[in-house]
Amino acid sequence: RGSEEWFRALRTARVIITNDCLPIWWAKRPGQRVLQTWHGTPLKHIGRSHIEETPWAYAVGALRGREESSEWDGLVSPNPFFSSIAAREFFYDGPILEIGYPRNDRLVRADDAERSELRSRFGLRADARVLLYAPTFRETGAGGQVSAMQELLDLDRLASELGEEWTIILRGHNYNRRASAKDASRARILDLTEHHDINDLLIVSDTLVTDYSSVMFDYLCTGKPVFNYVPDLEDYTASRGMYMTVGECAVGPLLHEQDALLGLGQGGFEPGDPVADGEGDGVSGAVYGLDGE
Q: What is the C-alpha separation between 214 and 228, in angstroms, rounded?
């Protein structure tokens, strides 16, 4: 992104497939087609609902939203819930293709050979158990799509208490990556925030610890356990609107203290029914109904 080849491709490509907003300076050329796939099933407000939370910025945000979505020839939806909010949130009146995320097909199809190759690429032992910690960014201190990583989970303590068989992969949000290029890797903690494809990390890991991130929904395609570590639940929900409570969509138990997470880790993070283990059932059919093939 940002290279000469990237600029040339945006200008000359017949078809552009993107999972985020295109640059504000970009204009669609005659004959070009744009397919928008977005980048996750949202728990947090996006689009119209998000900009409505800051009324002073609504006019500019709404104008930009309409300009952006008017360039789209189609919008891919991963599930019925996303389809139900997409037109309003994106100021969009084009076709919505509820076909699941093509990128998640890879999560469904991943096999032992691919996992083994990825472990070798990342320097992980073949017999290591891998925990992926992938939190979203925090609104506090964020600005211009940049947000410093907040260390709500003591990874050094977690690595120590889980024991030698476990390796932790840290994957920060893209906003965290923009805030700092520092590699936070250390003993049995591998910082892969800069890695370009999170699907590699979803495949190589044995369990996921996240918070309010849409990655929880993608991870269900792997059939592996997901845990929501939310020590700042009250503060977070006060700072960012949501479509549902975390409890309603949690795919595992809500963990408010690190000791609770450690207790599960000592039990091996054994998976249960990923949807039934959560508190919510009213949204599960709509959110979990179609995320991959």
A: 11
